[in-house]
Amino acid sequence: MGKKALNVSSLLSRRLHDDRAKEVVKQLLGVNSDGFNRALQVVESKIQAPYRTTQKVDVLKSRVLTVEDAWSVKGKSYLMAGGRCQLFFSETTF
């Protein structure tokens, strides 16, 4: 039997009292709003902003699935609604 897709609406109605379910509402972007800055060893808010490069660059483009993010911040998990597109670019300057 195949895995069933997670229905976020029914999850919210079943777990509305749960703080993680409330996070889904805040996380409709599909990406955790917090991340661990390894260079500074602190948890920081991620910034959603448009960027324009001065030259052609390659990026990894992916669609975010509904998932419980237990890796962005050690000891904390976030239920992510998913469904949005994210781009990953490994360069720190461009």
Name some characteristics of this structure:
single chain, 94 residues, alpha+beta, two-stranded antiparallel sheet, two-stranded antiparallel ribbon, 16% helix, disordered N terminus
Order of helices and strands: HHEEEEEE
Radius of gyration: 16 Å
Number of strands: 6
Q: How many domain modules?
A: 1
Shape field: globular
The chain-level mean pLDDT equals: 71
Distance between the termini: 47 Å
Q: Which segments are poorly predicted (pLDDT under 50) over 5 or more consecutive residues?
A: 1-16
Secondary structure layout:
Elements lengths: L7 H7 L4 H8 L7 E4 L4 E4 L14 E4 L3 E3 L8 E3 L4 E4 L6
Antiparallel strand pairs: 1-2, 3-6, 4-5
Structural description of this entry:
The chain is α+β, with helices and mostly antiparallel strands and about 90 residues long. The chain has one domain. The chain has 2 helices and 6 strands, in the order ααββββββ. It has helices at about 10-15, 20-25; strands at about 35, 40-45, 60-65, 65-70, 80, 85-90. Residues about 1-15 have low confidence and may be disordered. InterPro entries: Ntox46.
